């Protein structure tokens, strides 16, 4: 930052940054008068990661139900072949993480991915609910044209998410982090 004079750095009005606290400290030190704006990609990534946790948890639950008590406790370790949906039972295979449709809007999915999504959503309503919350959050960035409208939609997202946190616990951390980021410093 020594290449840019302090007087020029003080005139900077806004700085885009990621969510790392150390980056926030650096941005504050380098650009003391700038408003810090969290990068859209990193904020949406929080919600996408919460969505990606759900099929993994569903698969673990399905595998746990299938195993008998004490099974695999005394066996010696041996490497298992890579994942193959044909080798697993239906519940385990359908919830394999790679089976989850890309976290995109429905209009961007190809037929195969949309078909996988339809199976997942039919079998696991919690996954449909999580996907809807994720798309609702994404829609704030894509469709809101004013700050007021975006704040209104974000508040609506918080309200809907709070009513479904019992079935979507992985969304609690992103929700709290996003609320914390919105607080004035």
Helix run count: 8
User: Which value, in Å, is the CA radius of gyration?
Assistant: 22 Å
Name the overall outline.
Answer: elongated
The main pleated sheet reads as: 2 strands, parallel
Strand content: under 5%
Number of domains: 1
Helix coverage percent = 55-70%
The sequence of SSEs as H and E is HEHEHHHHHH
Distance between the termini: 23 Å
Q: Please mark out the parts with pLDDT under 50 across 5 or more consecutive residues, or reply none.
A: 83-88
Overall mean pLDDT stands at 78
Can you walk through the features of this model?
The chain is mainly alpha-helical and 185 residues long. The chain has one domain. The chain is 58% helix and 4% strand. The protein has 8 helices and 2 strands, in the order αβαβαααααα. The chain has helices spanning 6-11, 21-30, 40-66, 90-94, 111-123, 125-143, 147-163, 172-182, and strands at residues 14-17, 35-38. Strands 1-2 form a two-stranded parallel ribbon. Strand 1, helix 2 (21-30) and strand 2 (35-38) form a beta-alpha-beta unit. Helix 3 (40-66) packs antiparallel against helix 8 (172-182), helix 5 crosses helix 6 (125-143) and helix 6 packs antiparallel against helix 7 (147-163). It is elongated. Residues 83-88 have low confidence and may be disordered.
Topology:
Layout: H1 6-11, E1 14-17, H2 21-30, E2 35-38, H3 40-66, H4 90-94, H5 111-123, H6 125-143, H7 147-163, H8 172-182
Parallel strand pairs: 1-2
Helix pairs in contact: 3-6, 3-8, 5-6, 6-7
